[in-house]
Amino acid sequence: MLLRLLWRARAEPAYAEQVDQRLGLFPVVAAAPTIWLHAVSVGETRAAEPLVRALKARWPHARILLTQTTATGRATARALFDKHVVLAWLPWDLPWTQRAFFKRWKPAIGILMETELWPNLVAEGARAHVPISLINARLSPRSARGYARLSALVHPMLDNLSVIAAQTQADAHRLKALGARNVAVTGNLKFDVAFPDGQLAQSTRWRTSIGSRRVVLLASTREGEEAILLPALLARLPPDVLIALVPRHPQRFDEVARLADRHGIRFARRSSAPPPDAAIQLWLGDSMGEMFAWYALADVAVIGGSWLPLGGQNLIEACAVGCPVVVGPHTFNFAQATDDAVAAGAALRATDAQDMASAVAALLDDDKKRQAMSEAGLAFAEAHRGATARCMALIEPLLRGRIEGAAGNHQ
Prior knowledge:
It is a single chain. By secondary structure, the chain is α/β, with parallel strands linked by helices. The chain folds into two domains: 207 residues, Rossmann fold, CATH 3.40.50.11720; 185 residues, Glycogen Phosphorylase B (Rossmann fold). The chain is built from 18 helices and 14 strands. The strands form two sheets. The chain has a seven-stranded parallel sheet, with helices on both faces. It has a seven-stranded parallel sheet with strand order 10-11-9-8-12-13-14, with helices on both faces.
């Protein structure tokens, strides 16, 4: 496991930082009432943002501890929260490492985001008498089948959770079928995510530099998708259309640049060049934490992760800024949100890359259709807000007395 970390650190140096924390070895920390959240990577960290802010507003004296396991998740947390939270790596799921984690931090509560369930983590939390909740929980049919094969581990793990806040009725049903109790449907926290400061202004500056060129965004693409999406778009779209491409994982920025170079695509990098001139076909978004700006810039967004059987990516941010969306056939990780967006008229579903390119070209030629989808996206996002308040209503009874009592003990 240590060798794997060092290998990953070749592409993402943050994996070599504070490796001792992965083994449960933490520095001595000042005693303070602590609310602990675990968000494994980028998507979960972004989803946690409205909840973190609500917790900080409700208990301003409490320390917010945010743990992660990926370098991209940690980078996202630093960009979102600056010094308002304490960051640490979650230890590997071994009994002694998790026991050391709870002994060192003594959290008043544990909040796990989405599907980040680990048997030893939950067991040691119960041993330490820390109520642990699963918030913004989602469980695809494929994942549910996998968990069902491990029922001897999964059932006691779910039984030790104090509260489960599921995104949808379907998620709640699948969790209950695995033995979960105390399950409530609260909606998706991602609908409550606020626009990061300055990103809409950033998008306006880009638009001023680009001028009247129409922009098609390939958002959060995964390995293997660029090779099928880019040729389809380039063959179908007029030459004046700018394609913006933001890979899901930063370690793939150079890989995608090499792909563009091999195909003779004229491209510029976001990190090293101003907004591209008319000669550039592709603008590579090789920067972190700017997705709202990219969606606000785009005339149409094509959501990655959905063109190969990878489960799709979150389209809520695109809808929240009124960007028309095209998704592929594979959206099982975000099934409800995607189906609801399509039903609301905010998104279109394409069957393959060629179908996608045709749909994008048709949208670029139809201003009224794009405007209708934009308005539908804004209405869709607004209608689904409120998950933060519903989650807080579940969390507050678990914290009542624990935070106040901890604060009194540490004064």
